[in-house]
Amino acid sequence: MNPSASGWIKKLIKELKPEKLFKYNDLEVYYRHFRDCGFIYGSNVTIVNNWIENDDFEADEICKINLVIALLIAYTNHNTSQDFYTEVVNFYNTINKKRVSFLQFIIASKDVKDQTENIINKRIQIDDNLIDKSFNYFITNALLFVDVLAFRQYLKTGAISEDYIQRYEAIIESIVLNTLNSKKEKSEYDKSLINLFEQSLRYQRDTVLLYNEAIKNVDSNLFSRYCLDLAAMATWTDATLDNEEVVFLNTLGKNLNLTQHQTDEASKTIEEFYKTYRQKVPLLGSKNIVKTFYDNSTNMVFKLIKRNSKRLTKELLESKELVILLSKSTVRDLSKEEQRKVQEQLLDIFKSVPSLAIFLLPGGALLLPLVVKFIPKLLPSAFDDNRIEDEEE
């Protein structure tokens, strides 16, 4: 089986025989195995439970296989008249109704099996030129289990909405950020990591869901375990667990109605995982990951702005409000509303400049703070008059 070639899901199903292997054993039974193989952590090091043996798979191929296996487990344990491929396509079609590019990608082929493979490829697609691969694996792939939980809900009720996934990601965001902030002393890398996490979710929010509200909205034991495991992973940004983090995790476990054994197991498992696979999995908070991300992104944004300076200057001169806001950003932090206006107006400009379309791709929002930082420095002619006007006001 070659997970990078057409027809691989059909071969996977033939090898696994899911109707026999998974029947009567839902995700709760296999959750521990998905954690042990790294799927829950977003760092897939082995095929879950070694159901498929092969040492030649790349990390993204292992991730694809594990995602399909998780979806198969959910599918096998729910009565449905539709085949697996149709249910997967309908599910992703439903939660991506507002994303025209994604829908066009799905319907590129009329064969439902091809569509399913296209979806799985798209879902874990990593663009090396856009953001650092190691970091993006954490953000994109650690949240894949949300897809699995949502797919299970879809199979149960016959319906699903984007709001369901948004709510789950809002809960995870709140819990993970509270975990990262529980550290008594934060380095600049910790702060950068918090910022990267906030910028990298599928759905951007103006405010983070309050911790108590997040806890209140956790609606199942399986989701509780998942949230705790992501929190435990977040404490390992520096390969140590300080007293504040221990207290936070214990409190979180109680708030999520989990046993002390489950809470202790979450901390112990992530420690063993990172120690066992230290050569394969860089720590989430590794200075190299964060530094490489910023270094690579800085160079790319710098070049793109320089190469398109004339066109950008022309567009900026026609956007007085944007120029004023960018000028203000050089002397103070912009409010959430001002940041929203800047982002919207910049994206409008990027749409009109083909070579800047990279900022419109998934993950492009990560680069916008760098764009805001560099534009006033690299295109001063677009700002001189507006700075004077701003001062006069």
TrEMBL record:
One of its GO terms (molecular function) is ribosome binding. Pfam families: LETM1_RBD (PF07766). InterPro entries: LETM1-like_RBD. Residues 334-391 form the Letm1 RBD domain. This is LETM1-like protein. It comes from Olleya namhaensis.
